[in-house]
Amino acid sequence: MEIGTEEYVKTKKGYIGKVTNQEKAYGGYYLDCMRVVAKENIVGHSKDIKKIIKEGDVIKYRVNNLSAAKIGEVKKHKDPRSNKEYLSIEFYSLEQIEILEILTKELFEKNKYKVEEG
After folding, report:
1. Assuming Cys at both sites, which of 36, 56, 61, 77 could form a disulfide with 97, CB separation 3.0 to 4.6 Å?
2. Which sign, positive or negative, has the C-alpha torsion 32, 47, 26, 103?
3. What are 21's strand-pairing partners?
4. What sign does the dihedral 5-7-13-15 (CA atoms) show?
5. pTM as predicted
6. Do 73 and 57 contact (CB within 8 A), yes or no?
7. Best CA proximity match to 70, nearest among 61, 80, 79, 78
8. What is the pLDDT of residues 62-76, one digit of tens each?
């Protein structure tokens, strides 16, 4: 797995960051989010952040520059005509939106507080 600088990476724990520097001595990568991640802890990487987004991630996004920012969960849908599956948010494909922020499913699960009905 070759990972270059300026690529986005997603870790096993759900962190996302952009590689700013490669540290050859430790086999890891420096990320812009002030983390160092070992190669074996990376589960996905791409120059296009949309390629490492998975079902269940929570995204703050805009449909176009004029729309207000919205927050939604990424879901998997199936195109009935082509039978192909794709990721979308509120029925917009990821290609149709501008991503502003991402909270991965892993971090959401780790940090959530479940409200008990009483």
Report:
1. 61
2. positive
3. 30
4. positive
5. 0.84
6. yes
7. 61
8. 998 778 999 999 999
